[in-house]
């Protein structure tokens, strides 16, 4: 497994698409998550939070899976709104408008599942966000879902907008956003498109990590999944998303 993890880590580090597979696909989600953690150990980047993939029906259909899965976010590929995001020519640059939480206190593993109210009490701020997704394995979006999990849930980069104060629980699902590419609108959506609401996604992640003995750290960002149509950017494009209650986030490539 170590050699497979080393190849995946180098693919993440270089940003380039792999020309061949480093070995057989992981046999099931638990092994894929174990491989994901080994990749992170070899990569040795600075973790700053988590993303949750496949929280919308559209994303689940696109990746041929029936549920979400997590991946880490790293300081080396974390950007603030308006920044240029370097990418390679062979990247997909699928750009996903997402609602992002930042944790004000840590949530540690325990036997009893966390409730949504408990989880929201630990939130420090909420942000408009753009996640950049880039499958690095040869078949791109036609691979086995276990490869997506092992490959960091396909995360490439995260762009985060200014902090807003936490909202009432019932408000999150009603957040709306409109996304544009170079000034032309290309997508819209609402918070409920992500598992019924981003607060539900956050709770899912906390309990998934808890079951695996992983702390959701104080200060961690959590990107809760795309809430618009899925679209790609070309190098030179500017992508902007404007969220009700949260403001604007943008990036150039």
User: In sequence order, what are the helices and strands, one letter per element?
Assistant: HHEHEEEHEHEEEHEEEE
Number of distinct helices: 6
- Binned, the helix content reads 10-25%
* Spans where pLDDT lies below 50 across 5 or more residues: none
Strand % is 25-35%
Known CATH architecture: Alpha-Beta Complex
Based on helices, strands and strand pairing, what is the structural class? alpha+beta
**CATH superfamily grouping:** Fumarylacetoacetase-like, C-terminal domain
Q: What is the CATH first-level class name?
A: Alpha Beta
Mean pLDDT: 95
Rg computed from alpha carbons, rounded to a whole number of angstroms: 17 Å
Q: What is the oligomeric state here?
A: single chain
Q: Largest beta sheet, briefly?
A: 8 strands, mixed
Shape: globular
Can you walk me through this structure?
This protein is of the alpha+beta class. Helices cover 24% and strands 30% of the residues. The strands form 2 sheets. Strands 1, 2, 3, 4, 5, 6, 9 and 10 form an 8-stranded mixed β-sheet that branches. A 4-stranded antiparallel β-sheet has the order 8-7-11-12, with no helix packed on it. Helix 1 crosses helix 2. The longest helix has 15 residues, at 29-43. The chain has helices spanning 2-14, 29-43, 57-62, 116-121, 145-150, 198-211; strands at 47-53, 69-74, 78-80, 94-103, 123-133, 155-160, 176-181, 184-190, 221-226, 231-232, 238-243, 247-252. The mean pLDDT is 95. The protein is globular.
Short summary:
24% of the residues lie in helices and 30% in strands.
């Amino acid at each position: 497994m170590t050699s497979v993890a080393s190849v995946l880590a180098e693919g993440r580090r270089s940003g380039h698409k792999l020309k061949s597979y480093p070995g057989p696909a992981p046999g099931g989600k638990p092994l894929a998550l174990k491989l994901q953690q080994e990749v992170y150990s070899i990569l040795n980047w600075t973790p700053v939070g988590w993303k949750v993939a496949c929280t919308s029906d559209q994303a689940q259909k696109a990746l041929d899976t029936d549920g979400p899965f997590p991946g880490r976010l790293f300081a080396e590929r974390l950007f603030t709104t308006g920044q240029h995001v370097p990418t390679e020519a062979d990247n997909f640059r699928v750009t996903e408008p997402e609602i992002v939480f930042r944790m004000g206190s840590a949530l540690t593993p325990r036997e009893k599942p966390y409730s949504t109210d408990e989880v929201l009490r630990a939130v420090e701020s909420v942000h408009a966000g753009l996640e950049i997704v880039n499958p690095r394995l040869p078949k791109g979006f036609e691979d086995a879902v276990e490869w997506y999990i092992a490959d960091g849930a396909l995360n490439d980069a995260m762009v985060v907008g200014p902090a807003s104060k936490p909202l009432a629980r019932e408000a999150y699902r009603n957040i709306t956003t409109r996304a544009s590419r170079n000034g032309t609108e290309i997508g819209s959506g609402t918070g409920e498109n992500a598992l019924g609401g981003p607060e539900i996604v956050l709770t899912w992640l906390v309990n998934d990590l808890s079951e695996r003995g992983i702390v959701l750290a104080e200060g961690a960002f959590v990107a809760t999944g795309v809430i618009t149509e899925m679209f790609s950017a070309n190098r030179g494009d500017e992508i902007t998303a404007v969220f009700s209650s949260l403001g604007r986030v943008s990036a150039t490539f």
